[in-house]
Amino acid sequence: MKIITLQNGKSLNEQQFINYFEKKVLYTIRKFSLFQNSQKPSIKDLFKIKKFKSLIISKECLDDISVKIIESLMKKQGTNKLESLLPKSKNIIRPFYLISKKEIELYAKLKRIKIKKESNSKIQSWLNSLEQKHPEIKNSIVSSLLRIAEKHLNSILKYT
């Protein structure tokens, strides 16, 4: 069985990683109240479906969101754009919001789920190189947006 080392240095076997990933997705769903009641698709289905009832399920992850935050700030797009990048924005939900692209790709490989790999933008490449020296940079960018939203934006999210 293959040993997987997480960004925080913790080592897991394949089954432990699968459990870790699924708990992290469920945590994201619960923390941001992405589904109204107990009815929610399975984690495997989240990779496949685009809509669930009236919700659009975005496949955007921590990497994608951190890039979009940086782009938004560089283009001076304002709070409306930043608000649209929260885990729940109008009828769009992002169950992979707190999960890195590497974790998603590894989970998909272990569970034999086909996913589309996208090419990196210049900002994505820059963040990836920055992440080599500062492993938590993407988490910090997204966490900062969540703190701003909690305190200053007219967000539809409730964090408490």
Task: Report on this structure.
The chain is of the alpha+beta class and 160 residues long. It has a single domain, classed as Rossmann fold, CATH 3.40.50.620. It is 51% helix and 9% strand. The chain is built from 7 helices and 6 strands; from the N terminus they run E-E-H-H-E-E-H-H-E-E-H-H-H. The chain has a 4-stranded mixed beta sheet with strand order 3-4-6-5, with no helix packed on it. A hairpin with a 2-residue loop joins strand 3 and strand 4 (55-57). The termini are far apart. The model is unreliable at 155-160 (pLDDT under 50).
Topology:
Blueprint: E1 3-5, E2 11-13, H1 14-31, H2 43-48, E3 51-52, E4 55-57, H3 62-74, H4 78-83, E5 88-89, E6 92-93, H5 101-111, H6 122-133, H7 137-151
Parallel strand pairs: 4-6
Antiparallel strand pairs: 1-2, 3-4, 5-6
Helix pairs in contact: 1-5, 3-7
Average pLDDT for all residues: 87
**Number of strand segments:** 6
Q: Distance between the terminal alpha carbons, to the nearest Å?
A: 40 Å
Q: In the CATH classification, which architecture applies?
A: 3-Layer(aba) Sandwich
Overall structural class, as computed from helix and strand content, comes to: alpha+beta
Q: What is the fold named in CATH at topology level?
A: Rossmann fold
Name the beta content range: 5-15%
Strand order of the largest sheet: 3-4-6-5
Oligomer: single chain
Q: Quickly name the level 1 CATH class.
A: Alpha Beta
Largest sheet: 4 strands, mixed
The helix content is 40-55%
Instruction: Tell me, briefly, the overall form.
Output: globular
Give the helices and strands as they follow along the chain.
EEHHEEHHEEHHH
Low-confidence stretches: 155-160
Radius of gyration over C-alpha positions, nearest whole angstrom? 16 Å
